[in-house]
Amino acid sequence: MGRIVLDKVSKSFGETEVIPPLDLTIEDGEFAVFVGPSGCGKSTLLRLIAGLEDATSGKVIIDDEDVTQVSPSKRGLAMVFQSYALYPHMTVRKNIAFPLRMAKMSQSEMNQRVEQAAGILNLADYLDKKPGQLSGGQRQRVAIGRAIVREPSAFLFDEPLSNLDAALRVGMRLEIGELHQRLKTTMIYVTHDQVEAMTMADKIVVLQAGVIEQVGSPLELYRTPRNRFVAGFIGSPKMNFIGGDEAAKHGAHEIGIRPEHIAVANGSGAWSGVVGVSEHLGSDTFFHVHDTGLAETITVRADGEVSLNAGDRIDLAPREDVIHKFDAQGMRIA
Amino acid sequence: MSDRKLPRLLQAPAVILLLIWMLVPLSMTLYFSFIRYVLNNLRRPEWTKPLPSNWRGFGNYEFVWNNKDFWLAIQNSLLIVGSIIILTVTLGILIAVLINRAFPGRGIVRVLLISPFFVMPAVNAVLWINMILDPVLGLQGLAVDGINQLIVSLQTAPGVGWFFSLWPQLEPISFRATQTSAYAVIIMVTWQWTPFAVLIFMTSLQSEDQQQKEAAILDGAGAWSQFRFLTLPHLGRPIAIVVMIQAIFHLSLYAEIEIVSRGNGNKNLPYLIGEFANNNIGAASATGIFAVILANIVAIFLLRMIGKTLME
């Protein structure tokens, strides 16, 4: 079990309120991702759940039990830190066994659990090495192993992949996803990278300045962002925002359209502009279009085969059905 | 291999200087230790010159070996160095852990804690032996006297008087007498060098990874387990450094011993060398060679013990 409920939880450091009272429910077995720009309070929220920070007010409830005053080790949660936080003078085996040793488990059971975790994470060959001799990805696996052996009711990940290089990050992302399918344990994952959030999450919680902007599945957030912030944060490259007359035509203060929803048209588009920088990814090409009279730049995603040079005129055809409309407060107009 | 010539040539002056620096005193000591060489002898004036004709073989070594103070000096050297190291490291870790948390006035407390290290060794010894450890006039004498008077006054108290009349009169300890003077030296040097240990441990504690501690908290480690499994291993290297440096410094303690007891009942090897050197340079040199051997034995032990933590 691992159903985590935050009931009007808030956190202040002295006078500054980092997290205004918020409610959130994470169901048992769910993969929830907290995502937001740095300093939005997502790590603080995770630490509140872990018990490393005390809530200023409100309740943290795990499996119908109020754990607000319960010490971190008794909450049955395991955490994986950004810096891995491995114990440098212990071997991998001792690192993974440490929580069991603290729980005064018998040596034979301890060995069995460590071997099992090492098997799951492909660490069997490294058990007698020290963390200093391992690569970043291997260290990350050891940190996850240390979390697994405790058989926690939920895993907490605090930006676990941000110290890895891009290729490794994609691999580890997949591994964590597979681990979740295998263990079916609740996981809460904090990241500032919306790609990680989109690819891994069952439920994304978008945070800004300690406030939950929207909670939903990745596609819900992509299709129907509740406000301008979520619309801009989810999706890569970023959504184009257009104000002024063009927005007024749609009966909105501002409209947003994703780069993938604008087609490159030959002489028949609603908009037109001059191509600036183009980014060729092979499968796709991103054009940054200037002088459209709508916004400073409009980003357009086109097929990889389309080739245009800087300075070429380009006609753009937006898909009217997927234009997002926002009012003056930045909220979505249905 | 001509490409190695230039670097070697450039290194040469430093290496040669270092060799002279080390080899000349060492070989002179070795030479003096094998001849009869005294500063003043009216009957045998030829011994006052360091000539090869005064060759004595291992005679000086035999003389020192059979000297009644020699084994006492070796014992004392080891006792003093060992005790000081154990006490300073223990106290240093305790104090460093204690002041590593935030509290009002931490800056002042730190400065005060470091200050004993800036007192000169001789001044340190004079202060301790006269003002604190003196059995009559020092703090010790006054404290013992005060406790005795308190007990005497309590002996006449109704109800509990019988209990206190069973208590003996406390005797102040004279730290200038025989073996106790070694304890006086250990106490005062520990007081002076604990700040050194605190300073080094404190800086090391500040570099301790906080996320590791948080991970340990989540893993169920209590305060003691965190200290035992995280902080202590983290301090392994600084402990090794403190032990090594102090071993080097305290094997050659001199001023404190001179001031506390003038070597009366408490000598270490440097003090014995000093006594011999009043006249008998040959014997002093032989003792010096023994001291070199002792220092090497201690160094090998320390390197074995501590080398492991340093190599990790």
From TrEMBL, chain A:
Name the coiled-coil region(s). Answer: none
Q: What is the lineage of its organism?
A: Bacteria, Pseudomonadati, Pseudomonadota, Alphaproteobacteria, Rhodobacterales
Domain (ABC transporter) ranges = 4-234
Question: Which domain of life does the protein's organism represent?
Answer: Bacteria
Example of a GO MF term: ATP hydrolysis activity
What keywords were assigned to this record? Answer: ATP-binding, Nucleotide-binding, Transport
Q: Which InterPro entries match?
A: AAA+_ATPase, ABC_transporter-like_ATP-bd, ABC_transporter-like_CS, ABC_transpr_MalK-like, ABC_transpr_MalK/UgpC-like, Mo/tungstate-bd_C_term_dom, NA-bd_OB-fold, P-loop_NTPase
Indicate what this protein is called per its UniProt record.
Glycerol-3-phosphate ABC transporter ATPase
One Pfam family this chain carries? TOBE_2
- GO CC annotation: ATP-binding cassette (ABC) transporter complex, substrate-binding subunit-containing; maltose transport complex
Similarity comment: family membership: Belongs to the ABC transporter superfamily.
Query: What organism does this protein naturally occur in?
Result: Pseudaestuariivita atlantica
Q: Which PANTHER family match?
A: MALTODEXTRIN IMPORT ATP-BINDING PROTEIN MSMX, MALTOSE_MALTODEXTRIN IMPORT ATP-BINDING PROTEIN MALK
State whether keyword Lipid biosynthesis applies: no
From TrEMBL, chain B:
A Pfam family this protein belongs to?
A: BPD_transp_1
Instruction: Give the Gene3D superfamilies listed for this entry.
Output: MetI-like
What keywords appear on the UniProt entry?
A: Cell membrane, Membrane, Transmembrane, Transmembrane helix, Transport
Family annotation (InterPro entries) = ABC_transporter_permease (IPR051393), MetI-like (IPR000515), MetI-like_sf (IPR035906)
ABC transmembrane type-1 domain spans which residues?
74-302
PROSITE patterns, from UniProt?
ABC_TM1 (PS50928)
Q: Where in the cell is it found?
A: Cell membrane
Gene Ontology annotations for the cellular component aspect, listed alphabetically: plasma membrane
**Family named by the database record:** Belongs to the binding-protein-dependent transport system permease family.
Q: What protein name is recorded for this chain?
A: ABC transporter permease
Say which species the protein is native to. Answer: Pseudaestuariivita atlantica
